[in-house]
Amino acid sequence: MIIKKARFVTSISLASKYGAAAEGLPGSEICVVGRSNVGKSSFINFLARQNKLAKTSSTPGRTRLINLFSFNDGEFTLVDLPGYGYAAASKSEKYKWDTLIGGYLENSRKLVRALVLVDCRREPSVLDRQMVDYLYSYGIPFSVIATKADKLTRNQLFGSIQKIATALAVGRDNIIAVSAVSGKGRDEVLAHLEEVLRSASETENE
Ligand code: GTP
Ligand code: MG
Q1: Of the residues 42, 59, 63, which should be mutated to test ligand 1's pocket, given the most ligand atoms within 8 Å of the CB?
Q2: How far is the CA of 62 from the CAs of 92, 117, 173, in angstroms?
């Protein structure tokens, strides 16, 4: 798949408003989930090849809303969700984010795949495992993306991917390592998304 165009559509602060906001958008949705600061917004920019499409920040907790991005004039929509596990957040903020993320995952009718982002240098956290369990229990298919691959050598990355695979109980072939800095993994991710969208449209037409 070639990304010709990507544009920001809208931000949503309440999951209950999600349906109305997404209504006019054609195409399937793919959402990006993961710990705060793991590189979700950077990942969207890396796919779009636009630095400022999604707002990124070195301070965790940057994305506090559900942000929708339309790719290739409606071929698919990428959904940037707030990160979980932001330590400095207050209890009420955490609650708000959890309901926002959970509300989206449970209510989106066009969601065909979740991309679970994990930092390639870290063991997945309890929250990452909870997210994977949650996706399993709601029957939402997911793929794992290991971010910031530029921070490790080839050998280190190999070892890390194995640890992530074991911790999340997925096959290592189901993990794609990417770097928003070097561009590594972009073609692989796009080929994967093409396959995901193709099989989703086949299921829909059955
Ligand atoms: P929240 O919105 O707070 O949940 O964060 P996020 O997951 O959207 O992370 P974001 O994309 O804002 O990136 C967080 C930090 O990681 C920023 O300082 C980025 O520059 C950095 N970063 C993201 N991707 C990469 C990468 O591939 N390599 C390196 N070296 N840094 C990265
Ligand atoms: Mg973000």
Answers
A1: 42
A2: 17, 16, 31
**The model's pTM:** 0.94
Q: Which residues surround ligand 2, an ion (CB under 5 A)?
A: 40-41, 62-63
Using DSSP, how many helices (H) and how many strands (E) does the chain show? Answer: 6, 7
Rounded CA gap, 90 and 103, in Å?
19
Contact yes or no for 188/67 (Cβ under 8 A): no
Name the residue at shortest CA distance from atom 28 of ligand 1.
Answer: 148
> Over the chain (206 residues), what is each successive 10-residue block's mean pLDDT?
94 73 79 94 96 85 82 94 78 78 87 97 94 94 98 97 97 96 98 95 78
Q: Which two tokens stand for residue 113?
A: 């795949």
